[in-house]
Amino acid sequence: MRILHTSDWHIGRNLYGRKRYEEFESFLSWLSDLIGNEHIDVLLVAGDVFNNTTPSNRAQELYYKFLNRVAASKCRHIIIIGGNHDSPSFLNAPKEVLSFLNIHVIGAALEDPAHEVLVLKDNDGKEELIVLAVPYLRDRDIRSVEPGESVKDKEDKLINGISSHYKKVCEIAEQKNNGLEKKERSEKVPVIAMGHLFAAGGKVVEGDGVRDLYIGSLARIRADIFPDTIDYVALGHLHVAQKVAGLDNIRYSGSPLPMGFGEALHTKRVLVVDFVNKEPLESPLQPLIEEITVPRFSNLVQIKGDLNNIREGIEKLKLKKSPAWLEIIYNGKEVHGNLRNIIDKEIEGSKIEVLRIKNDRITAKIMGKGDREQIVNGADIDNMVDEMGKLEVFKKCMEAHDIPAQQQLYLLDTFAEIVKDMQEESV
Ligand SMILES: [Mn+2]
């Protein structure tokens, strides 16, 4: 049986205000072709289908068009779990209709965790796969907040809550699997767990949209919450494709499209998991895992350096007649207030578009102690948030307002929690 694992599509995500629907469309059409060509039986989407809780009509159209194509193919099952960016109620709304197409949607944790354990059947009605379709677990799903809890208490509760949720569904899956094995079977039915979470030791990159959510928080999940009875763990949330704790069968597929310039040079992939093992029941299953590279549907380029480096970089792109989307990070010694004009002249007559210019010299100046009035007066805060991220700006604001150091840590955690809640809010 062949399973395709992907996550974090973030359909509808912009890049510095630039819409990217063509890219999403190209990716989804490439993916549906791949599912056909690779003879995929089961598709797993591990959360963050959409970039926000109220996807545009165009984003929804792309999603349903894709589901329609795959449902009409030989792929027997599609399983979609909600991520932290998704609105559970939005994902769940068409659930009943989609179930007729063998598309299983679990937008949020269910009251009875047994319903997150899906037993999938093949064309002959024989059980072929058990999937623990555990969505992103929100604070409110798993822990009860009590007044006066410290940040550490809250994090411990969150981690314990997530662990015990997995423990419950794993036990249910095991019971169901044992039930199946009593029937006369020659092969073990593979068990796959899904999740949208931050595993301990996971890699993130700047500008991938994951970072802010967790700074100041240690809520990371250890790989040992997945017992040996699970043959493969399909994770979403981190955008860099990676194994967890060096284990071959616990993986993040990563986002298929670069979410920001920081990922421009990363190889993006989807994973094909193949259970070919025809051994007797007792032996653990060893899936074969193949990494399939996603073609680049956009041309994101980052140029970093002084004015000379930037000019050389642009010149190279011009020679190649590249239609690149460019991010420029200026970190030269001289201060150039008119960097935008200089660069606009450089790209004149080319197909290059400059999406962002980050002038490290100017940012450093604004953030320097000498210019603290600007922060105190709230000057240019929006721009600074863009450049540095919310938490970093909040830290600088606290410093500028002489908040005592011992209070800063607590306030930063509280601020991080509010940011997280705002991102989790769903309609
Ligand atoms: Mn994501």
Task: Map the helices and strands.
Elements: E1 2-6, H1 21-37, E2 42-46, H2 57-71, E3 77-81, H3 88-92, H4 95-99, E4 103-106, E5 117-121, E6 127-133, H5 139-142, H6 151-182, E7 191-196, H7 211-214, E8 232-236, E9 242-244, E10 247-252, E11 269-274, E12 288-293, E13 300-305, H8 307-319, E14 325-330, H9 339-347, E15 353-359, H10 360-367, H11 372-376, H12 381-388, H13 390-400, H14 405-424
Parallel strand pairs: 1-2, 2-3, 3-4, 6-7, 7-8, 8-10, 13-14, 14-15
Antiparallel strand pairs: 1-11, 5-6, 9-10, 11-12
Bound molecules: manganese (II) ion.
Manganese (II) ion (MN) binds at residues 8, 48, 83, 85, 237.
What does this structure look like?
By secondary structure, the protein is of the alpha/beta class. The protein contains 14 helices and 15 strands. The chain has helices at residues 21-37, 57-71, 88-92, 95-99, 139-142, 151-182, 211-214, 307-319, 339-347, 360-367, 372-376, 381-388, 390-400, 405-424; strands spanning 2-6, 42-46, 77-81, 103-106, 117-121, 127-133, 191-196, 232-236, 242-244, 247-252, 269-274, 288-293, 300-305, 325-330, 353-359. The strands form three sheets. The chain has a six-stranded mixed β-sheet with strand order 4-3-2-1-11-12. It has a six-stranded mixed β-sheet with strand order 5-6-7-8-10-9, covered by helices on one side. Mean pLDDT is 85; it is low at 212-218. Bound molecules: manganese (II) ion (MN). Manganese (II) ion binds at residues 8, 48, 83, 85, 237.
